[in-house]
Structure formats: structure tokens, C-alpha cells
Design a protein that fits this description.
two-stranded antiparallel sheet; 2 strands; about 230 residues
Length: about 230
């Protein structure tokens, strides 16, 4: 066989060119790869922290926070940690499974990013797989929040009340009213995680529309050189 192979449209191209990607990577690919890297790093570090906490039982809400003079800020930070730990204690198996899934998803994101920057043709499939896996994780997390965690807000409220009492006693201020703490507990346990879940779903949709859509097919399968976003 000659060094050149004829394509279907009659043009000549070097052998193996169809399996290689264009040398110029579109900006949208680079931007999404960086976002996948950030998302993967967040999932990786968060999942390792959660698995370590579940294995050791050490509370992150009790760590020293030097330089934190405002009692309300302390309640927000310690309260967020303490309420997450309260949910984990109430549902340890679910917490462990979710942490393990997030760790696996982080590794998938890292593989997709490595494939993108190395010019691996599997980058598109890896990114689409990461998008579907992320979609499943976030939808499942949202369902768990609404169906399980929401029912335990009242049970976790004493944890937040204790943190608020200690923080405001240190500064000499009066603690917040119980109704305010109840609203804060609902915000930290339900509303903030749901917002994070919604952002994760939107990011998964963005990956599906780009890597799984026409742009992704043209760049990875059609060999189109594109330098626009």
C-alpha cells in the first residue's frame, strides 16, 4: 500500500491522519477541560476528607479557628461542618457510598482532562461519560437531600444551637433566636447543597451539549480545525 491513502472525497491524506486530532485545540475544549480539572480536584479532596472523617470519627467542627473574631462567621463555618457530620452520623452507609462515588467521578474527570491535553481521541468519550456520571451523582444527591436529609433538619438543630451558644458566649453577645437558627439549619442542610447540586447538573448538561454534540463530533471525529469558542 502506498504512503498516501485516498479519502472518500478523492483527496490524499497521510496514513493515520484520520486517527489524529488537529494541532490547534478550540478554546471551548480548553476552557471545559480546565473546569473539569477544577471540578475533579474539588471532588477528589472533598471525598478524601469525608472518607477520612468517616473512618476516624474526628470532628472538623471542633478544630481551632484562630483569628475568627465574629461569632456569626464562626456559627456559619462550624455549623456547616457540624451539620454535615450530623447527617453522616445518621446515615453512615449512604455517606460512605456517596464519598466513594465522588472519588471515582474525580478520577474520571482527571482521565478526561489528561486525554484532552494529550490529544487522545478518547477525550470526547471520556468527557461524555463523566458528564453522565456527574448527572447521575448530582440527581441522586438531590433526591437524597429532599427525601431523607430534609426530614432530619429538626433533629440536627440542637447541634447548631450548641455551636451558636458557644460562639456567642465567647464574644459576650446574645445567641440568635431559635427561629433564626432553624432557618439557618435549613439553609445549610438543604438549600446550599441543592444549589451545588443544580450547578453540577448544569455543568454536566454543558459537557453533553459540547463534547457530546455537534462541536464535539466535528472536532474529534471530523478533524475540523477550529479556533473559535
Amino acid at each position: 500500500m502506498s504512503a498516501n491513502q485516498g479519502s472518500r472525497d478523492g483527496t490524499k491524506r497521510p496514513s493515520g491522519e484520520a486517527s489524529r486530532l488537529p494541532t490547534r485545540r478550540p478554546r471551548w475544549v480548553t476552557v471545559l477541560a480546565m473546569l473539569m480539572l477544577l471540578a475533579g480536584a474539588r471532588l477528589f479532596l472533598g471525598s478524601l476528607t469525608d472518607l477520612r472523617r468517616l473512618a476516624t470519627g474526628r470532628s472538623m467542627a471542633d478544630v481551632r479557628m484562630d483569628g475568627l473574631a465574629d461569632a456569626n462567621q464562626e456559627v456559619l463555618i462550624r455549623g456547616q461542618l457540624a451539620l454535615e457530620e450530623a447527617v453522616d452520623r445518621a446515615h453512615p452507609i449512604a455517606a460512605g457510598v456517596q464519598a466513594a462515588i465522588r472519588l471515582v467521578l474525580a478520577l474520571v474527570f482527571f482521565f478526561a482532562v489528561a486525554a484532552v491535553f494529550s490529544g487522545d481521541p478518547r477525550a470526547r468519550r471520556a468527557s461524555v461519560f463523566a458528564a453522565w456520571a456527574g448527572m447521575a451523582l448530582h440527581v441522586g444527591s438531590g433526591a437524597f437531600l429532599l427525601m431523607v436529609v430534609r426530614k432530619g433538619v429538626a433533629d440536627a438543630l440542637p447541634v447548631l444551637q450548641q455551636i451558636a451558644a458557644k460562639a456567642h458566649a465567647r464574644t459576650g453577645d446574645a445567641p440568635p433566636a431559635p427561629a433564626d437558627l432553624a432557618q439557618l439549619a435549613s439553609t445549610l442542610m438543604i438549600q446550599v447543597p441543592l444549589l451545588t447540586t443544580a450547578l453540577g447538573v448544569l455543568f454536566s448538561v454543558l459537557l453533553l451539549v459540547t463534547f457530546g454534540g455537534r462541536r464535539g463530533r466535528l472536532f474529534y471525529n471530523g478533524g475540523v480545525k477550529a479556533d473559535h469558542g
